[in-house]
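Extended Data, panel c. Modelled sequence:
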Amino acid sequence: MNFYRDTERPDLASEVKQMSIEDPYTIQPAQALPGALVNFVIGGIFFNAFLSSEKNTPIDFLILLPATYYGFLAVKTISKMMI
């Protein structure tokens, strides 16, 4: 496979750009939902652990970091479907 810069092959670059406008790549729900569901469940487990624990020190709030991260991944995956 050979890769070229757009400046080296402007005719091919314009053709590729036109094809992507006519038929943009979208992710099907069957492709995105399993990954989003897994990330949502993992984030929910971390968030549930945060809610059920006693918060005595500021370090106890660190469990929100993975919950936020996995929640962000779930939202990002679902937003790819919307495009």
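The radius of gyration is 21 Å. This feature is highlighted in the accompanying rendering.
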